[in-house]
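Minutes, structural biology subgroup

Action item carried over from last meeting: produce the structure token record for Cytochrome P450 (Streptomyces venezuelae). EB confirmed the sequence was re-checked against the source entry. Recorded below for completeness.
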Amino acid sequence: MTAPRQDPLRDARFLADPYPAYDRLRDGCPVRRIPTGSGGHHAYLVTGHAEAREAFTDPRLSKDTARFFAGRPSDRDLHPAVSRNMLASDPPAHTRHRRVATPLFTTGRVRALRPFITRVVEDLTATWRPDTQVDLVADLAVPLPVTVVCELLGVPESDRATLAASSHDLFDATDTTRIDAASHHIGHYLTALVDTALANPGDGPLHSLLRDCEEGGLDRDEAVSLAALLLVAGHETTTHFIGNAVLALLRHPEAFDRLRRDPDRIPRALDELLRFDSPVSVATFRYSTRDLSVGGFDIPAGFPVLIAPGAANRDPAAFSGPHRLDLDRDDARSHLAFGHGIHRCPGAPLARAEAEIALRALLTRFPGTRLAVPEESLTWRQTRLTRGLTALPLTLA
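Output recorded by EB:
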């Protein structure tokens, strides 16, 4: 298993279109060692679907980033609310956080939110008219999930745009100083928001969340970290989910037309859209605590392990014609866009509801929508973790 000479996940061609690189890496070996950054460091990249499912559930792969980096030199300065949350912990700490987070996104709670999500979509698209241009990312895909999650956290409307910008900056792979500064803005803001709510008991959405945290055994700092995770994870990935789905449908007009004619098929189509162009390209940090084998491939202890849902969802061993968008695909639900195992995204039902309502509004109100710019001019976020467009200019019709 020969490692590439350079990090294949930082190549400009990968950031524009990761799938050819994923195919090459997977064909050579579905679990392989790759260089990461500079200084001779390496990680193990998992690109096969079966191997990714196995890795997601292996308890020897830890998400405790604090333990991994303890004692290692670092010039990073992330706020603890961002660096020490449910995504960066193992059981039993993870179990306590998960016990509080999961009930926030039950079928019943998401159903109760649907009228609010619908009103947000209607408000955001109220000024849209045929034969005009909009940026689907800036005008809908970003503000929709931000508005919803900020409503859940009780964030005042006047603060939402600034908080969304900081959340966006957290995924800026090109500037660690900017990432660290964004983490501190989010951490300080949410700490003040939580402290204000604790000092002034009430019946708002944040008060309800804090009561859930107290009943679940989370202290004040853990409540802040949960709020930060809900903000960041609930916004960035859903934004990319919506943008990637619309672009995929525009690239496949027969699928676009099919959903336009029968919008009740949209909920079922979401799984194939998630599989086809996953908003999470590489899952968050894990490392091997012991020597282990994934799919028959050895990984020594002490190395970062990168599980790539974006690659796994295009694995020909799992999906026939994986590079084809097929709304009739029977096995689309086995995609790994939301992860797998105990760390599977608890907010998946909310993300699906937001994407469904946004797509339904676009397809039914503007059935002739098309790209307003040449496809080759579209640009993608410069981060290997998530996959999403910087903008999606559309001409409404």
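Discussion: Strands lie at 31-35, 42-46, 61-62, 133-135, 287-288, 292-294, 297-299, 305-307, 370-371, 393-395.
Next step: EB to file the record with the rest of the batch.
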